[in-house]
Design brief:
This protein is α/β, with parallel strands linked by helices. Among the domains are: 36 residues; 203 residues, Rossmann fold. It is built from 12 helices and 10 strands. The protein starts with a strand and ends with a helix. It binds guanosine-5'-diphosphate and magnesium ion. The site of magnesium ion has 5 residues, from α6.
């Protein structure tokens, strides 16, 4: 599972940069070990959510021993409490009720199976929108411009740090553009990440027009023949008309300098903020042409059901999830692993 890949690398082993002196088998084993570890960490991150659906369901069933109306009421309450969203909850319950009345669902295994099916179908439906998770980028696209947007504090800068490290480790030339020129701290924080990852950072003094910084960064990225340019932006929702004008200008500059740029616009959402975050996200969708979601802080909440609400209500795929503050705490979002993790 590579985070980002070139067309020419499509068949190539993505972990080859881990050490060229090693045999392909050794490297493959090592990459698999990394993926396994990420899987374990992801499962840990959704443990609280799993507890609030799966474990509670088991407890209720044990005392009641049958799936009746009272049981379904409890199920509804549990689903709502994980921020899965009202419309998703109704969709799931509707399907479960049908299954119960047709005697297809008589035990917990069948009930969980049906719930998994419904949740997966929602998550898969949104994958077609936006940029698909298995992005394979043509060699002619250089630099691939990835714009990162979202409200202050959701985890944009942290995600960019993690993402740049991972994409670089997969053998790509990465650069970062500090276009959140509103807060001095934003640039300082990016500087730390860029040094840690060994990825060049293009920045200017606080207050500079973000579009001017982006222009600079695009020029440098082209001069250095960089594969990917990741752009940090400011998230001042309270000043929406400014934000809109700013993003518009940045997009104009980007597409003028690089054909079809930005190629991807990731909206970062903080899982802890739940339905509130979803509302902020909607406002962002109105000003930026978002192609995918990064869901951060999944490790800090029992309301991990928000992933499904986001997919259903925004109709956008979740590309990555943040599962901690460390550089390795970012993983691709896999609907199967997520849904299995909720019910395992
Ligand atoms: P920005 O304002 O959108 O750029 O947000 P930052 O990247 O500065 O992040 C805000 C805070 O959230 C920081 O303290 C980060 O360490 C923390 N954070 C970001 N992503 C995650 C995550 O996936 N899990 C946890 N637990 N904390 C995170
Ligand atoms: Mg920031």
């Amino acid at each position: 599972m590579a985070f980002w890949r070139r067309k020419k690398n499509k068949e190539a082993f993505s972990g080859s940069i881990l050490g060229l002196d090693k045999s392909v088998e050794e490297l493959k084993a090592r990459e698999e070990a990394i993926e396994r570890e990420l899987g374990v960490r992801f499962n840990k991150a959704i443990a609280k959510t799993r507890h609030s659906i799966n474990d509670k369901l088991d407890t209720v069933f044990e005392s009641r021993k049958k799936i009746d109306e009272a049981f379904l009421d409890e199920l509804e309450e549990m689903l709502i409490s994980t921020d899965i969203g009202v419309s998703t909850t109704f969709q799931v319950l509707d399907s479960v009720r049908k299954g119960v009345s047709r005697a297809e669902i008589t035990d917990m295994a069948a009930l969980k199976g049906r719930m998994k099916e419904e949740l997966l179908s929602i998550l898969h439906a949104s994958e077609a929108a936006g940029v698909a998770s298995e992005t394979v980028v043509d060699e002619s696209v250089k630099p691939y411009v990835l714009l990162v947007v979202g409200v202050n504090g959701v985890g944009k800068t942290t995600t960019i740090g993690k993402l740049s490290q991972r994409i670089k480790n997969e053998g790509n030339e990465v650069m970062i553009c500090a276009a959140d020129t509103f807060r001095a701290a934003a640039s300082e924080q990016l500087e730390i990440w860029s040094e840690r990852a060994g990825v060049p950072l293009i920045q200017q003094k606080q207050g500079t027009d973000p579009a001017a910084v982006l222009f600079d960064a695009l020029k440098s990225a082209k001069a250095r023949d960089a594969d990917v340019l990741i752009v940090d932006t400011a998230g001042r929702l309270h000043n929406k008309s400014n934000l809109m004008a700013e993003l518009e200008k940045m997009k104009r500059i980007a597409s003028r300098e690089v054909e079809n740029a930005p190629h991807e616009t990731l909206l970062v959402i903080d899982a802890v903020t739940g339905q509130n975050g979803l509302e902020q996200a909607r406002q962002f969708m109105n000003v930026a042409e978002v192609t995918g979601i990064v869901l951060t802080k999944l490790d800090g909440t029992a309301k991990g059901g928000i992933a499904v609400a986001i997919s259903k209500e925004l109709n956008l795929p979740i590309r990555y999830v943040g599962i901690g503050e460390g550089v390795d705490d970012l993983t691709l979002f896999d609907p199967e692993i997520y849904v299995d993790g909720l019910f395992e």
